[in-house]
């Protein structure tokens, strides 16, 4: 991914998200998804701005179907904040960076 986001697979989901130190914002996305591509730069910036406070993780639903199925992801992008291994906030669809950032801050 990049220095501010981490790629998570079905195999690494438990370790990287559920057992993570601190909150994790998971972006369920796909390569063909236009709105997913629209919010990617904002998520990258949020990853940098919130470094040390939240981890931004990305799960490609096409190559990793288990996690999205388990958490009821029906449309993408779907963003879920996990704390202590549990989902605590969920947001669907694209939104401007300012709204994304406010949602993340509220979810922490």
Structural class: alpha/beta
Please state how the strands of the largest beta sheet are arranged side by side.
1-3-2-4-5
Helix content: 25-40%
Shape: globular
Q: Into how many domains do the coordinates divide?
A: 1
Let me know the number of strands: 5
Poorly predicted tracts of residues: none
CATH architecture: 3-Layer(aba) Sandwich
**If you average the pLDDT, what whole number results?**
96
The helix tally amounts to: 4
Structure description:
The chain is of the alpha/beta class and 108 residues long. It has one domain (5-101): Glutaredoxin. Helices cover 35% and strands 26% of the residues. The chain has 4 helices and 5 strands. The protein has helices spanning 13-18, 34-49, 66-70, 97-107; strands at 5-7, 24-29, 55-60, 78-83, 86-92. Strands 1-3-2-4-5 form a 5-stranded mixed beta sheet. It is globular. The protein starts with a strand and ends with a helix. The model has no long low-confidence stretch (mean pLDDT 96).
Structural topology:
Layout: E1 5-7, H1 13-18, E2 24-29, H2 34-49, E3 55-60, H3 66-70, E4 78-83, E5 86-92, H4 97-107
Parallel strand pairs: 1-3, 2-3
Antiparallel strand pairs: 2-4, 4-5
Outline:
The chain is α/β, with parallel strands linked by helices and 108 residues long. Helix content is 35%, strand content 26%. The protein has a single domain (5-101), classed as Glutaredoxin (3-Layer(aba) Sandwich).
